[in-house]
Amino acid sequence: MTAPASDQTRTRGRRTGEQRAPWILLAPFLLVFLFTFILPILAAVGSSFMQVTRSGLFGEQGVTQEFAWFHNYALALGDGSFITSIGRMFLFGIVQVPIMIIAATILAFLLESASARWPGLFRAAFFLPYGVPGVIATILWTFLYVPGLSPIIDVASWMGIDIDFLGPSTVLWSIANIVTWSYTGYNMLIIIAQLKSIPGELYEAAHVDGASPFRIARSIQVPLIAPALMLTTVFSIIGTLQLFAEPQVLQSVSPAIDSQYTPNLSAYTTAFAYNDYNVAAAQAVLIALVAFILSFAFLRLTNRKDQ
Amino acid sequence: MTPLTRRQLLKFGLGAAGAAALAGCGTPGLTSVNAAATIPPASPSSPVTLTYWAWLKDLQKVADIWNAKNPHIQVRTVWIPAGAQGGYPKMYSALAAGGGPDLAQIELRTIPEFLLVNGLVDLSRYGAAEHAATFDPTLWKQVSFTGGVYGIPQDSGPMATFYQTEIFERVGASPPTTWSAWAEVAAELRKQKIYIDVFPFSDASVFTAYATQAGATWLTPTEDGWVINMRDDATMSTARFFDAALDKDLVSTAFEAYSPAWFAAAGNGTIASLTDASWADALIEGISGGKGKWRVAPMPRWEHGGFGSSVRGGSTTAVLANCRHPKEALEFAAWLNGSQEGINGLIEHCGIGWSANPKFIGTSRMEPSPFFSGQNYNQEVFVPASTEQNPDWSWWPVTQQSLNILADQFRRKPGGQSLVDGVVKAEEQIMSVFQNKGLSIRKEEA
Distance from CA of residue B253 to its chain's centroid? Predict the structure, then answer.
């Protein structure tokens, strides 16, 4: 009678052990995720609904914090510079994201074509800029943008062309250039991974049918890498709205970049230059919402086209 | 009672930690260190180390002079980017996180902004009053608010006019003593395709300095809140004057002072003069081929009154809220900015602005300057200028934002909006910034 009972406990012990094991293994990740991701988001959302009232000249006679409903959101949306910065990122994204994705796709096709020489070397070379942190990349490009330092401007001026990379109408595209340089290789790699998963039989069948390389690209490769293209586009849309390091670094050489040039710069300035943490939190939540809406709209749009 | 399982414990732990984290994530800077008890000085047997964030180069060399004499108070300096370019955001975020250095370089105009987030130690509670007599009373007033003292003045920037003698002689002009004479000289220079000076749209602190000279006091701290008055006669006539100067193309807006284009223009003689603070001397010395061509004259005056000079720039050494040794920090700050040793060191190693100690301008500044045509300009021009200041001017808790608002309005000047209208609109916006921060503000009744 005792044997089956002990058998049962052992099974139960093993089963609870099996149930517990994944949680124990996940715990380090979950803890970090909770404390550095979930809690800060909750804190920001909470903070965006709070308002501080001070009495006295600086609040020395008392500071009260109260729930303010959507007051901070109204302030953020009423701030012309913040709205302008979001509009600026729309313009940036509409131009830069397609250019980057198309460039990444072309590079991926070239490297994956049968006639490519040293694809490994070029793949690494194209990917290399992604390994350069955004701040360093911007400093490197600054040397090509600043008059007096830039060989490009010198050469252009010999030919009688006056280029200003840092003027009010051009600096946005100078930033776009840095971003494209940094992230094309990364997106290319995602697309290559997807290309590699296309079964060889499909190519063989296409060859048998006498399809040209262009036809293969159009009818086989593009449809089959569509998920990768969507993923990279959504990432790029989100990345565009979060543009921060490049304009922040270029600010020192371009007066055209004001303290609210991009939405993230705007939130940063509001929080750490104007000391308005609550409005900054509202701005941050708004940036996340816009990114969410844009990504969602893009996915809906592409899904509908598929049907 | 059933013993807690491990999972329950974990849940409780996480819940408690989460609640604590959320509580800690409230809006930072709501409690004041100055409401707590003062921190007693450390005993001489246990040495303290103070950290000092500043954007002065080679500051450690000056601190080392102190360190050698004061083994029980060692100061370690850390270089940070200049204030609005990244230094202040760094300090604010450190304060919000409950950390930060013991001492920090904070501009005079930024002291009230740090007060708003309870970022500074009230030094009057640690005996700042005994140092008050060492420093310029106008500067001391600008670090004193609501009965406290929130920083030790480090330097300031009394203003004067730097001009190229040869170019002025070419049009038969002597340095203008009034702003209307300045406009006449400017018109003469324009005939030779020379600009007398620049007017920056993107840096409103220059216009602010001109209005200060005319006698403006934009914000006044009173018992029942802030009082704003940007539409007084002094400000409006200053705005009208520069509206006219800009409309007649008397000043250049193509570039700002100290930009590469400005250095080129000043070097080839298409910019004749510059009205700015005393610390501009070091920058002007950077103009290639400028040696012997420049002199310094007192700032032009406004006809209807005001003051002989104005001020641009100026810093303090402040003690930040999370400092654990405020008494020792105050002693060091007072030595650094008040003693002859400290001032000479700051001039030699850090190129500091105008000394905050009116009795000692610095040994090297008592001598004639070969660059400025052998003129002893510091003694001749800047010593009087430093005493002819608007004593009523006070900075306010949203200075940086206000200057940005003003600059954004000025940027509309080329589009046709006058500076006068810009200032009037800026006043409304600055008032709403105060209100949105929960501060009380009212317009001064005329």
Answer: 23
